[in-house]
Structure formats: C-alpha cells, structure tokens
Amino acid sequence: MDNQPTIHSLLRTVDWKNNKVVMIDQTKLPNELVFVEYSDYNDVASAIRNLVVRGAPAIGVSGAFGLALASLQSTATTKEQLLSDLEKARKILFETRPTAVNLAWGLEQIMNAAKKGNTVQEIRDLIMNTAKQMAEDDIKINMTMGKHGSQLFNDNDTIMTHCNAGSLATVAYGTALGVIRATKEAGKNIKVIATETRPVQQGSRLTAFELKHDGFDVSLIPDTAVGYTMANKLVNKVVVGADRVLRTGHVYNKIGTYQVALMAKQHGIPFYVAAPLSTFDMKSNPEDVIIEQRKSTEVTQTGDKKTAPDGINVINPAFDMTPPELISGIITEAGVATAPYEESIQKLLEAKK
C-alpha cells in the first residue's frame, strides 16, 4: 500500500492546475513522459479526438474539465448566455468520441451542476467544484472496484489484459489494471501478459510502460499470439476495461477484445470486465451503439513509415462488442455482476443509489 501516493502523483493522467487542464500526452509514450496544458476547451476537444488523453473514465473527467475551461472563456454576463456557451462547448466535446459513455456522462454532470447556479460566478464555481470532485471520485471508485475484483484472482495467477485500462485510462488508479494493482496490494504474487493492441499500440506503448513503471512482472505479446498463449497455458485469467456496458451485459471495448473473449471461452479461461457504473448505458440496445471508425493511416503506416500499398481500402473500427455469454463477471465499484446480467446490473445500480 505504501507506493500508492507515488503511483498517483507520477501518473496522474488529467488534472486541474491554475485554471488550466494538465494532461499526460499519451501519444508521446513510451518514449517520453510529457505533460501538456490547455486553457481553451477546443484544445481539450482536439486532445480527446487525437488520443492525447484516452480511456473512458479519463475522457469523462477531461470533458468535465473542458466545460470548466469553457465557463472561464465565456464572456457571458447572464446565466442564459453562459448556459448557451456551455451547450455549444458540450456539443463540440461530445462529438470527439461517440462510443465511450463516460464522456456524455461527464458532460451531463457538469451541465446539471451549471443549471443550479443563478449568477455567472456561481455557475463557474459549481462547475469547477463538480469537475474536481469527479476527478477525486474516479480514483476512489477505481480503488473500491480494485478491491472487489482482487477477490477473483489468486496467488501466482498470470493475468492477460488487452488495450490500456490503467492509470493512463483513468484519472490515476485504473479499472482493469486497478484490479491487477489491488490484487498485488493484497499480497498476491501475479504476472501480467499485455497484448500490443494494434493499430495504435495502447498495450505496448501504455500498459507495458505503466506496469513496468510500477514494478510489475509484465510480458508483451503480439495480438496474434493470444491463442498461442492460452493454448500453452501461459495465462489463467483475463481482465479488460470497457468503454460502454449495456444493461444486457454486452460490452464495448477496444477492437480485439471480442477475439480475446472468444479464445478465453474456448480454453476455459475466466474473462472479466472492470468498469465503473458511469460506463453503464441502461437505455441503448446493441443495434443502437455507434462504433467509431478511425482514420486509415493508423493501419497503413507506423509513425511516418508506410506499411501498406497506396489506395488500399481500410476498415478501422475503434471498438467491438463482446456478448454477455463470453463474460465471467463485470467488476464495478458496487460489486461484481454475473449472469443473468440484466438482473445483476440492475441490483448493483440500485445498491449504488
């Protein structure tokens, strides 16, 4: 437990300092740890769009801080004018990443807080306090989720994770990696296998960086070696994060998660998802969810180096859907949901109220 403050202070993904949003620029990792500062909400929107900050909980809080900047940038003198400026900023921020539910949730929390104020200054103060509280709550929620999740893992487990659901995907502690952290903090000896997570390499650039940084025994594998690793009994549990969880237990996460879940089922390996209740979408059906399609150059080149012929068609979805029958449990801050998911998710949400 002693090393927690170090982890938080060194890898605080998004923060508010001197009326500016401060973020780790995740596009520069693992080569350099660079902090960037923004005083314009349009720059925060670009940062979310261009993956300077990513991970559902982190972009939820980033969106909230973006609206805090918008409230400071506004020259409004009345409540109505300020709310109008905030609504314009909310739309710009929301459109950056449509699949992650936390972004819409974070923006909605701030808009609800803003409506409670009567004067421009009161609204600014309410927004600021709400956004800062959301950042602090994110760490507490992840630590509670980690404790619930750690009970599912045993001493000497080797745990596979896909993409990055760690400190770098949240404000500090992590969702899937928060569970891994809490398991280690409970005194269990564990190893981690991280997939590289093509095409943007969040596993090799971010998860491997973060776990090595925090002293974990971590091995990196290409995405194509998931089946090999499982067939050769090199892994006995899987835990991933989520960008959206439906009331039915359908999970939307980084592209490639579905394959990992299918192979885990084939090899009898428990497959867990870790996600705060703010990631749950109780209204949408699977056919309603828009899967973000990203630019083709992520696939046709690595950095500036071309790796595919010119003019080739590219399909580059950012996320896929894992159906509930492949999921052993969904770890939240209110406990672990298990099948039948519709019932257990509802119970957890009611317990949280």
Automatic annotation (TrEMBL):
<dbReference type="InterPro" id="IPR037171">
    <property type="entry name" value="NagB/RpiA_transferase-like"/>
</dbReference>
<protein>
    <recommendedName>
        <fullName>Putative methylthioribose-1-phosphate isomerase</fullName>
        <ecNumber>5.3.1.23</ecNumber>
    </recommendedName>
</protein>
<keyword id="KW-0413">Isomerase</keyword>
<dbReference type="InterPro" id="IPR042529">
    <property type="entry name" value="IF_2B-like_C"/>
</dbReference>
<feature type="binding site">
    <location>
        <position position="97"/>
    </location>
    <ligand>
        <name>substrate</name>
    </ligand>
</feature>
<dbReference type="GO" id="GO:0046523">
    <property type="term" value="F:S-methyl-5-thioribose-1-phosphate isomerase activity"/>
</dbReference>
<dbReference type="InterPro" id="IPR011559">
    <property type="entry name" value="Initiation_fac_2B_a/b/d"/>
</dbReference>
<comment type="similarity">
    <text>Belongs to the EIF-2B alpha/beta/delta subunits family. MtnA subfamily.</text>
</comment>
<keyword id="KW-0486">Methionine biosynthesis</keyword>
<feature type="binding site">
    <location>
        <begin position="253"/>
        <end position="254"/>
    </location>
    <ligand>
        <name>substrate</name>
    </ligand>
</feature>
<feature type="binding site">
    <location>
        <position position="202"/>
    </location>
    <ligand>
        <name>substrate</name>
    </ligand>
</feature>
<dbReference type="InterPro" id="IPR005251">
    <property type="entry name" value="IF-M1Pi"/>
</dbReference>
<feature type="binding site">
    <location>
        <begin position="54"/>
        <end position="56"/>
    </location>
    <ligand>
        <name>substrate</name>
    </ligand>
</feature>
<comment type="function">
    <text>Catalyzes the interconversion of methylthioribose-1-phosphate (MTR-1-P) into methylthioribulose-1-phosphate (MTRu-1-P).</text>
</comment>
<dbReference type="InterPro" id="IPR027363">
    <property type="entry name" value="M1Pi_N"/>
</dbReference>
<keyword id="KW-0028">Amino-acid biosynthesis</keyword>
<dbReference type="GO" id="GO:0019509">
    <property type="term" value="P:L-methionine salvage from methylthioadenosine"/>
</dbReference>
<dbReference type="InterPro" id="IPR000649">
    <property type="entry name" value="IF-2B-related"/>
</dbReference>
<feature type="site" description="Transition state stabilizer">
    <location>
        <position position="163"/>
    </location>
</feature>
<feature type="active site" description="Proton donor">
    <location>
        <position position="243"/>
    </location>
</feature>
<dbReference type="Pfam" id="PF01008">
    <property type="entry name" value="IF-2B"/>
</dbReference>
